[in-house]
Amino acid sequence: MSTLNKNIGLIGFGVVGQGFYSYLEENKEEKLLPKIVIKNNNKERDEVKAKFITEADEVINDKSVETVVELISDDKEAFDIVTKALKAGKNVVSANKKMIANNLEKLLELENKSKGRFLYEGAVCGSIPIIRTLNDYYSLDTVTQIQGIFNGSTNYILTQIFKDNVSYQESLAKAQKLGFAEADPTSDVSGSDALYKLLILTTHAFGKFISPSKVLKIGIQNITDSDIAFARENNLKIKLIASVKSNNNKLWLSVLPTFITNDSVFYNVDNEFNAVEVVSESIGKQTLIGKGAGSLPTGQVIYSDYKAPENYKYKYDKILSGKRIKYETQEFIWVYSDKITQFEKYIEEVVIINKSEGYAKVSIADLIKIQEELLDEKLSLIALTDEALKQLNKKYEFAYALQYA
Amino acid sequence: MSTLNKNIGLIGFGVVGQGFYSYLEENKEEKLLPKIVIKNNNKERDEVKAKFITEADEVINDKSVETVVELISDDKEAFDIVTKALKAGKNVVSANKKMIANNLEKLLELENKSKGRFLYEGAVCGSIPIIRTLNDYYSLDTVTQIQGIFNGSTNYILTQIFKDNVSYQESLAKAQKLGFAEADPTSDVSGSDALYKLLILTTHAFGKFISPSKVLKIGIQNITDSDIAFARENNLKIKLIASVKSNNNKLWLSVLPTFITNDSVFYNVDNEFNAVEVVSESIGKQTLIGKGAGSLPTGQVIYSDYKAPENYKYKYDKILSGKRIKYETQEFIWVYSDKITQFEKYIEEVVIINKSEGYAKVSIADLIKIQEELLDEKLSLIALTDEALKQLNKKYEFAYALQYA
Ligand SMILES: NC(=O)c1ccc[n+]([C@@H]2O[C@H](COP(=O)([O-])OP(=O)(O)OC[C@H]3O[C@@H](n4cnc5c(N)ncnc54)[C@H](OP(=O)(O)O)[C@@H]3O)[C@@H](O)[C@H]2O)c1
Ligand SMILES: NC(=O)c1ccc[n+]([C@@H]2O[C@H](COP(=O)([O-])OP(=O)(O)OC[C@H]3O[C@@H](n4cnc5c(N)ncnc54)[C@H](OP(=O)(O)O)[C@@H]3O)[C@@H](O)[C@H]2O)c1
């Protein structure tokens, strides 16, 4: 094949686009990139060898382009670009988790009909090669759980809260000032960003496509000073944990602020770092920790997707067995709140620590209901890991015994 | 290509060989494996479809065999097998870290001349895909450090010491009973096994081939009860850490028992788990944690090597730049000992805690000399991480100030 039809069509030249570009430079491949598509023609930009244009179609329909690298911000426009590019038979690389989580089933159909391939390692936990690891190593293994810290902004905010003894609001402001959180942090602090990543991994590990709107998701935006004080008192940290678990052909998912004990690997995953833990039948627990975002860390995996071996594609080998698996919300979680008595009617079991403060066993389905009912109020709920539950039960044995005597 | 010449030649049917075989079964590929080579024809074995034979040459010279999977115990015999197989143009998969660490340069020459490829993910930290991660993601990045817990047996022994409050000897005995340590544990407890893995990663990350005999290596076999007591008093754990660092075209390596503070990711990597931390200029710190050994965890990566995309080979892209890098031993390390005064003449700086107990700054070169001089005596030395040094300095400030007043 001549190099002429090996060109790259880069669409989007923001944080990640520029990171990707710096690897092309490093490897002296800028000549493969005659044009870069951006939105705003009047923005000042670093000088590069490519010509800036504003029409994505111009690179998508360019016969010399073999790989389209889609790195724009909007998810709907991105879906349109990726669809067209796959239809045009291009290899496509993307990092747009929202677009992918919302459209993965359709995207696979498009890929199946295309002579191109669709890779998107950059969409999940930045520099951590979790999709390839699932794809290359877990085909013949049964994954039972994936959980982790999938959002760097919220982890940075939570870390500062515990390190500097500040409130959620102060910590958010600092994270924004330092560029670790966006001006509009909604997608991060609400847990949406973590949820998109969780759903993409759920397809690779369990073969299921689940709509984001169906999943229990509580962000960190309502965490109170008394939640933080309680964590500190008990030598716990709060992390935003996304989790998917499977058992007996059932599947449960959630994104929840969670108390972590100091013997957990997640306890020392701080600042902007992400972590993914995969539990499987054959190899047990495996954990990958690294930077979940940023120009160079994300640019690097985009570059590796672009450079993947010629016949490399994601295999999605769980989709067949996934047909037997049902998404469920009938699973109990222990949650802490300083207003636990507010949800009395949904509570299965409770340990009251003091007045309205305590922790209770509630089903995922009921937590979703509680969220809907309390939509206007600020709901602060922190889940407990099994270890955190054990630790608290030991301490509050007395309260517990009194209630269940 | 007909399936006839896609056969597998499996040599070795022990812990790992049987693990590999179970994935072939799972994927209904046993028919690709008509013969398995073993050593002892009289051993009782689980029934399998393949025929057991004792002549490795019979599969190496078999035209129907495309991939030779070498999983025997001895390193010299393994080198012979791998050499012949590459010369015969076969793809080769191996997990023999001792053989690879001692012969990697020659093996690459053989691979370069062969139409086959040589993959060995199973040789380094079992289930953790660290070689592929370095190969696929770090080509254009500059790695500055790799360190980690590379040996599961020693980590299991050290974990039990701290959990059950037992001595090194008791813990070793328990690990042997449970199958986490070999009957002859020398290669594990002396640090050799960790060193072999470190040297393989050094080639992938820095492009250097270094002989095991040149590297500072202290095992865990001489750890004393008072070392353990000191760790406990200071809320530290001891882990066997293998490390390679590079700066300014210099490279330092060591395998040392090391005090770890409780804010380190390694602190909660316990029992038979391994961890690898890669630090690089573009993506910062990345850590992979998982089972470092065992039949299924190792068998799984052997299977993935066997199944790697057709044109996949390790790239060794650092070998060119590696030519500029020099292996050095002029670097200082802080070490603790309850007999620190024994090495007085080599000490650059010291903090005496009590009589002969203390911690001192010593060069790698001098630590190697100390080891040689004290060959007959039991030498217990525990390195300090930067964080451990900081923590101890704070506590022993007073002692320190007195000495350097
Ligand atoms: N930032 C991270 O660390 C990170 C990590 C993982 C994944 N991601 C994902 O990667 C993607 C890109 O993120 P980013 O942070 O690089 O975004 P960004 O900094 O906001 O940059 C977006 C780029 O896309 C261009 N653009 C927007 N709409 C366009 C359109 N319709 N046609 C052509 N170009 C368009 C913008 O053009 P102008 O330059 O003219 O404004 C800009 O260059 C997103 O999906 C994000 O979720 C980001
Ligand atoms: N065990 C682990 O978890 C692990 C993890 C990573 C890497 N590794 C590496 O993987 C390799 C295999 O380890 P293992 O634990 O599976 O060893 P093992 O249980 O001792 O099994 C060795 C096998 O090799 C056979 N064998 C020995 N010499 C042979 C020869 N000259 N020709 C043909 N067959 C021969 C033995 O035959 P018999 O059955 O007749 O005795 C046995 O089946 C070693 O290099 C080891 O370092 C092991």
From TrEMBL, chains A, B:
One of its GO terms (molecular function) is NADP binding. Residues 12-121 form the Aspartate/homoserine dehydrogenase NAD-binding domain. It catalyses: L-homoserine + NADP(+) = L-aspartate 4-semialdehyde + NADPH + H(+). Keywords: Amino-acid biosynthesis, Methionine biosynthesis, NADP, Oxidoreductase, Threonine biosynthesis. The keyword Oxidoreductase applies. SUPFAM superfamilies: Glyceraldehyde-3-phosphate dehydrogenase-like, C-terminal domain, NAD(P)-binding Rossmann-fold domains. The keyword NADP applies. Residues 129-305 form the Homoserine dehydrogenase catalytic domain. InterPro entries: Asp/hSer_DH_NAD-bd (IPR005106), HDH_cat (IPR001342), HDH_CS (IPR019811), NAD(P)-bd_dom_sf (IPR036291). GO terms for biological process: methionine biosynthetic process; threonine biosynthetic process. Its EC number is 1.1.1.3. Transmembrane segments: none annotated. Pathway: Amino-acid biosynthesis; L-threonine biosynthesis; L-threonine from L-aspartate: step 3/5; Amino-acid biosynthesis; L-methionine biosynthesis via de novo pathway; L-homoserine from L-aspartate: step 3/3. PANTHER family: HOMOSERINE DEHYDROGENASE. Belongs to the homoserine dehydrogenase family. This is Homoserine dehydrogenase. It comes from Vicingus serpentipes.
